[in-house]
Amino acid sequence: MATQHSRSAARLMMAPAVILLLGWMLLPLTMTLVLSFKKYLPLRGGDLGWVGFDNYVRFVSSSAFWPAVTTTLIVVGGVLIITVALGVLLALLLDQPMWGQGIVRILVIAPFFVMPTVSGLVWKNMFMDPVNGFFAHLSKAFGAEPIQWLSQASLPSLIMIISWQWLPFATLILLTAIQSLDSEQVEAAEMDGAGAISRFRFIVLPHLARAMTVVVLIQTIFLLSVFAEIFVTTAGAFGTKTLTYLIFQRVLESQNVGLGSAGGVYAIILANLVALFLMRVVGKNLDA
After folding, report:
1. Residue % of the chain over a pLDDT of 70
2. What's the angle, vertex CA 217, arms to CA 279 and CA 241, rounded to 5?
3. What is the pLDDT, as a whole number, of residue 2?
4. Domains along the sequence of the chain with CATH
5. What residues contact residue 116 under an 8 Å CB cut-off, 6+ apart?
6. Which residue stretches of 37-127 are H helix?
7. What number of other Cβ atoms are within 10 A of residue 156's Cβ?
Protein backbone atom coordinates (compact mmCIF):
# COMPACT_ATOMS: atom_id res chain seq x y z
CA MET A 1 0.00 0.00 0.00
CA ALA A 2 1.35 3.40 -0.97
CA THR A 3 2.36 5.62 1.95
CA GLN A 4 1.67 9.33 2.24
CA HIS A 5 5.34 10.02 1.50
CA SER A 6 5.31 7.95 -1.72
CA ARG A 7 2.09 9.61 -2.92
CA SER A 8 3.55 13.04 -2.29
CA ALA A 9 6.71 12.08 -4.18
CA ALA A 10 4.62 10.81 -7.09
CA ARG A 11 2.64 14.06 -7.23
CA LEU A 12 5.86 16.06 -7.13
CA MET A 13 7.34 14.11 -10.03
CA MET A 14 4.16 14.42 -12.07
CA ALA A 15 3.75 18.14 -11.40
CA PRO A 16 6.05 19.41 -14.22
CA ALA A 17 4.24 17.33 -16.85
CA VAL A 18 0.81 18.38 -15.55
CA ILE A 19 1.80 22.06 -15.50
CA LEU A 20 3.19 21.79 -19.03
CA LEU A 21 0.00 20.14 -20.31
CA LEU A 22 -2.22 22.71 -18.58
CA GLY A 23 -0.16 25.53 -20.07
CA TRP A 24 -0.27 23.91 -23.51
CA MET A 25 -4.08 23.79 -23.33
CA LEU A 26 -4.96 26.90 -21.35
CA LEU A 27 -2.62 29.48 -22.90
CA PRO A 28 -4.03 29.21 -26.48
CA LEU A 29 -7.57 29.13 -25.07
CA THR A 30 -6.92 32.25 -22.98
CA MET A 31 -5.39 34.07 -25.96
CA THR A 32 -8.40 33.12 -28.10
CA LEU A 33 -10.82 34.46 -25.49
CA VAL A 34 -8.87 37.72 -25.11
CA LEU A 35 -8.54 38.30 -28.86
CA SER A 36 -12.23 37.56 -29.42
CA PHE A 37 -13.06 40.81 -27.61
CA LYS A 38 -10.57 42.85 -29.65
CA LYS A 39 -10.27 44.23 -33.16
CA TYR A 40 -6.91 42.76 -34.08
CA LEU A 41 -5.74 43.32 -37.66
CA PRO A 42 -2.15 42.05 -38.00
CA LEU A 43 -1.69 43.47 -41.52
CA ARG A 44 -3.64 46.70 -40.97
CA GLY A 45 -2.62 48.36 -37.73
CA GLY A 46 -2.37 45.48 -35.30
CA ASP A 47 -4.28 45.76 -32.02
CA LEU A 48 -6.98 48.43 -32.45
CA GLY A 49 -8.49 48.01 -29.01
CA TRP A 50 -11.45 46.37 -27.32
CA VAL A 51 -14.74 45.96 -29.15
CA GLY A 52 -16.68 43.97 -26.57
CA PHE A 53 -19.08 41.40 -28.04
CA ASP A 54 -19.05 43.00 -31.50
CA ASN A 55 -17.05 40.11 -33.00
CA TYR A 56 -19.48 37.56 -31.56
CA VAL A 57 -22.50 39.45 -32.91
CA ARG A 58 -20.91 39.86 -36.36
CA PHE A 59 -19.98 36.20 -36.59
CA VAL A 60 -23.30 34.73 -35.45
CA SER A 61 -25.36 37.22 -37.48
CA SER A 62 -23.64 36.13 -40.69
CA SER A 63 -25.99 34.38 -43.11
CA ALA A 64 -23.43 31.56 -43.42
CA PHE A 65 -23.22 30.74 -39.70
CA TRP A 66 -26.19 28.40 -39.18
CA PRO A 67 -25.73 26.63 -42.54
CA ALA A 68 -22.11 26.01 -41.53
CA VAL A 69 -23.21 24.57 -38.17
CA THR A 70 -25.75 22.35 -39.94
CA THR A 71 -23.16 21.17 -42.46
CA THR A 72 -20.72 20.39 -39.65
CA LEU A 73 -23.27 18.22 -37.85
CA ILE A 74 -24.26 16.46 -41.09
CA VAL A 75 -20.63 15.64 -41.88
CA VAL A 76 -19.96 14.36 -38.36
CA GLY A 77 -23.15 12.29 -38.29
CA GLY A 78 -22.64 10.86 -41.79
CA VAL A 79 -19.04 9.86 -41.14
CA LEU A 80 -19.92 8.28 -37.79
CA ILE A 81 -22.73 6.19 -39.28
CA ILE A 82 -20.56 4.96 -42.17
CA THR A 83 -17.43 4.23 -40.14
CA VAL A 84 -19.22 2.46 -37.29
CA ALA A 85 -21.44 0.35 -39.56
CA LEU A 86 -18.70 -0.61 -42.03
CA GLY A 87 -16.18 -0.87 -39.19
CA VAL A 88 -18.26 -3.59 -37.54
CA LEU A 89 -18.58 -5.50 -40.84
CA LEU A 90 -14.87 -5.21 -41.63
CA ALA A 91 -13.92 -6.21 -38.09
CA LEU A 92 -16.08 -9.33 -38.35
CA LEU A 93 -14.52 -10.15 -41.73
CA LEU A 94 -10.94 -9.60 -40.58
CA ASP A 95 -11.55 -11.78 -37.53
CA GLN A 96 -12.19 -14.78 -39.79
CA PRO A 97 -9.22 -17.01 -40.66
CA MET A 98 -8.00 -16.29 -44.18
CA TRP A 99 -4.88 -16.53 -46.30
CA GLY A 100 -2.60 -13.51 -45.83
CA GLN A 101 -4.62 -12.24 -42.89
CA GLY A 102 -1.80 -10.05 -41.55
CA ILE A 103 -1.23 -8.36 -44.93
CA VAL A 104 -4.97 -7.77 -45.39
CA ARG A 105 -5.22 -6.15 -41.97
CA ILE A 106 -2.28 -3.83 -42.73
CA LEU A 107 -3.85 -2.80 -46.05
CA VAL A 108 -7.18 -2.08 -44.36
CA ILE A 109 -5.57 0.05 -41.65
CA ALA A 110 -3.16 1.87 -44.02
CA PRO A 111 -5.52 4.74 -45.09
CA PHE A 112 -5.54 6.05 -41.52
CA PHE A 113 -1.88 7.03 -41.89
CA VAL A 114 -2.42 9.04 -45.09
CA MET A 115 -2.33 12.81 -44.54
CA PRO A 116 -5.77 14.47 -44.93
CA THR A 117 -4.50 16.79 -47.69
CA VAL A 118 -3.05 13.86 -49.64
CA SER A 119 -6.24 11.86 -49.13
CA GLY A 120 -8.38 14.74 -50.41
CA LEU A 121 -6.18 15.31 -53.47
CA VAL A 122 -6.11 11.61 -54.35
CA TRP A 123 -9.89 11.33 -54.22
CA LYS A 124 -10.35 14.61 -56.10
CA ASN A 125 -7.96 13.86 -58.98
CA MET A 126 -7.82 10.07 -59.25
CA PHE A 127 -11.36 9.04 -58.36
CA MET A 128 -13.80 11.95 -58.66
CA ASP A 129 -12.39 13.87 -61.61
CA PRO A 130 -15.29 14.07 -64.13
CA VAL A 131 -12.96 13.49 -67.12
CA ASN A 132 -10.06 11.26 -66.10
CA GLY A 133 -11.21 9.94 -62.71
CA PHE A 134 -11.83 6.28 -61.95
CA PHE A 135 -15.55 6.86 -61.33
CA ALA A 136 -15.87 8.70 -64.66
CA HIS A 137 -14.33 5.78 -66.56
CA LEU A 138 -16.57 3.39 -64.62
CA SER A 139 -19.67 5.37 -65.57
CA LYS A 140 -18.64 5.47 -69.23
CA ALA A 141 -18.07 1.71 -69.19
CA PHE A 142 -21.72 1.23 -68.21
CA GLY A 143 -22.92 3.82 -70.74
CA ALA A 144 -23.80 6.45 -68.13
CA GLU A 145 -22.87 10.11 -68.01
CA PRO A 146 -20.05 10.84 -65.51
CA ILE A 147 -21.14 12.61 -62.33
CA GLN A 148 -19.61 15.91 -61.28
CA TRP A 149 -18.99 14.52 -57.82
CA LEU A 150 -17.59 17.61 -56.08
CA SER A 151 -20.30 19.92 -57.43
CA GLN A 152 -23.39 17.75 -57.98
CA ALA A 153 -22.90 15.53 -54.91
CA SER A 154 -20.45 17.62 -52.93
CA LEU A 155 -21.53 16.82 -49.36
CA PRO A 156 -21.86 13.04 -49.91
CA SER A 157 -18.48 13.10 -51.66
CA LEU A 158 -16.88 14.91 -48.73
CA ILE A 159 -18.41 12.43 -46.27
CA MET A 160 -17.09 9.57 -48.41
CA ILE A 161 -13.55 10.98 -48.44
CA ILE A 162 -13.45 11.56 -44.69
CA SER A 163 -15.06 8.18 -43.97
CA TRP A 164 -12.38 6.43 -46.04
CA GLN A 165 -9.72 7.94 -43.83
CA TRP A 166 -11.43 7.22 -40.50
CA LEU A 167 -12.79 3.75 -41.29
CA PRO A 168 -9.47 2.01 -40.44
CA PHE A 169 -9.48 3.58 -36.97
CA ALA A 170 -12.99 2.30 -36.24
CA THR A 171 -12.14 -1.10 -37.71
CA LEU A 172 -9.01 -1.46 -35.56
CA ILE A 173 -10.82 -0.60 -32.31
CA LEU A 174 -13.78 -2.86 -33.11
CA LEU A 175 -11.54 -5.73 -34.25
CA THR A 176 -9.69 -5.58 -30.94
CA ALA A 177 -13.03 -5.73 -29.12
CA ILE A 178 -14.23 -8.71 -31.18
CA GLN A 179 -11.04 -10.62 -30.45
CA SER A 180 -11.67 -10.18 -26.72
CA LEU A 181 -15.07 -11.87 -27.02
CA ASP A 182 -15.32 -15.20 -25.21
CA SER A 183 -15.47 -17.80 -27.98
CA GLU A 184 -17.03 -20.36 -25.62
CA GLN A 185 -20.07 -18.12 -25.22
CA VAL A 186 -20.53 -17.93 -28.98
CA GLU A 187 -20.04 -21.69 -29.37
CA ALA A 188 -22.59 -22.37 -26.62
CA ALA A 189 -25.14 -20.18 -28.37
CA GLU A 190 -24.44 -21.96 -31.65
CA MET A 191 -24.94 -25.36 -30.00
CA ASP A 192 -28.27 -24.13 -28.59
CA GLY A 193 -29.44 -23.45 -32.14
CA ALA A 194 -28.89 -19.69 -32.35
CA GLY A 195 -28.35 -18.55 -35.93
CA ALA A 196 -25.62 -16.18 -37.13
CA ILE A 197 -27.93 -13.16 -36.99
CA SER A 198 -29.12 -13.99 -33.48
CA ARG A 199 -25.55 -14.51 -32.26
CA PHE A 200 -24.54 -11.17 -33.73
CA ARG A 201 -27.54 -9.34 -32.29
CA PHE A 202 -27.56 -10.75 -28.78
CA ILE A 203 -23.86 -11.56 -28.16
CA VAL A 204 -21.48 -9.75 -30.51
CA LEU A 205 -23.26 -6.39 -30.75
CA PRO A 206 -23.71 -5.89 -26.97
CA HIS A 207 -20.06 -6.83 -26.51
CA LEU A 208 -19.06 -4.15 -29.04
CA ALA A 209 -21.14 -1.41 -27.36
CA ARG A 210 -18.25 -0.01 -25.31
CA ALA A 211 -15.85 -0.07 -28.26
CA MET A 212 -18.41 1.63 -30.48
CA THR A 213 -18.86 4.33 -27.84
CA VAL A 214 -15.11 4.97 -27.76
CA VAL A 215 -15.02 5.20 -31.56
CA VAL A 216 -17.91 7.67 -31.63
CA LEU A 217 -16.48 9.92 -28.91
CA ILE A 218 -12.92 10.05 -30.27
CA GLN A 219 -13.93 10.52 -33.90
CA THR A 220 -16.41 13.27 -33.02
CA ILE A 221 -13.68 15.30 -31.33
CA PHE A 222 -11.58 15.30 -34.51
CA LEU A 223 -14.41 15.48 -37.05
CA LEU A 224 -15.79 18.71 -35.59
CA SER A 225 -12.58 20.44 -36.69
CA VAL A 226 -12.22 18.85 -40.13
CA PHE A 227 -10.63 21.31 -42.55
CA ALA A 228 -7.92 19.96 -44.87
CA GLU A 229 -10.22 17.70 -46.92
CA ILE A 230 -12.57 20.62 -47.59
CA PHE A 231 -9.75 23.01 -48.43
CA VAL A 232 -8.22 20.79 -51.14
CA THR A 233 -11.46 19.51 -52.67
CA THR A 234 -14.34 22.02 -52.70
CA ALA A 235 -12.82 25.05 -50.90
CA GLY A 236 -16.08 25.36 -48.98
CA ALA A 237 -18.23 25.68 -52.12
CA PHE A 238 -21.41 23.74 -53.01
CA GLY A 239 -22.69 23.57 -49.43
CA THR A 240 -19.57 22.04 -47.85
CA LYS A 241 -18.61 24.99 -45.66
CA THR A 242 -18.27 23.74 -42.09
CA LEU A 243 -17.87 25.95 -39.03
CA THR A 244 -14.10 25.46 -39.03
CA TYR A 245 -13.85 26.45 -42.68
CA LEU A 246 -16.12 29.46 -42.10
CA ILE A 247 -13.74 30.68 -39.37
CA PHE A 248 -10.81 30.37 -41.77
CA GLN A 249 -12.72 32.18 -44.50
CA ARG A 250 -13.83 35.04 -42.25
CA VAL A 251 -10.30 35.64 -41.00
CA LEU A 252 -8.92 35.51 -44.54
CA GLU A 253 -11.52 37.95 -45.87
CA SER A 254 -11.47 40.48 -43.04
CA GLN A 255 -7.89 39.95 -41.82
CA ASN A 256 -9.48 40.28 -38.37
CA VAL A 257 -8.03 37.75 -35.96
CA GLY A 258 -10.53 38.89 -33.31
CA LEU A 259 -13.46 37.88 -35.53
CA GLY A 260 -11.88 34.48 -36.14
CA SER A 261 -11.26 34.06 -32.41
CA ALA A 262 -14.95 34.70 -31.73
CA GLY A 263 -15.75 31.99 -34.28
CA GLY A 264 -13.30 29.71 -32.49
CA VAL A 265 -15.17 30.24 -29.22
CA TYR A 266 -18.41 29.30 -30.97
CA ALA A 267 -16.67 26.15 -32.25
CA ILE A 268 -15.57 25.28 -28.71
CA ILE A 269 -19.15 25.75 -27.46
CA LEU A 270 -20.50 23.52 -30.26
CA ALA A 271 -17.90 20.84 -29.51
CA ASN A 272 -18.82 20.83 -25.82
CA LEU A 273 -22.55 20.66 -26.57
CA VAL A 274 -22.03 17.70 -28.91
CA ALA A 275 -19.73 16.03 -26.37
CA LEU A 276 -22.31 16.43 -23.59
CA PHE A 277 -25.02 15.01 -25.85
CA LEU A 278 -22.88 12.01 -26.78
CA MET A 279 -21.87 11.36 -23.18
CA ARG A 280 -25.53 11.27 -22.17
CA VAL A 281 -26.75 9.19 -25.11
CA VAL A 282 -23.92 6.76 -25.82
CA GLY A 283 -21.42 7.46 -23.04
CA LYS A 284 -23.50 5.47 -20.56
CA ASN A 285 -22.16 2.33 -22.24
CA LEU A 286 -18.80 3.05 -20.64
CA ASP A 287 -20.34 2.52 -17.22
CA ALA A 288 -22.13 -0.70 -18.21
Report:
1. 90
2. 110
3. 53
4. 65-240 (1.10.3720.10)
5. 165, 226, 228, 229
6. 54-60, 65-94, 101-109, 116-122
7. 12
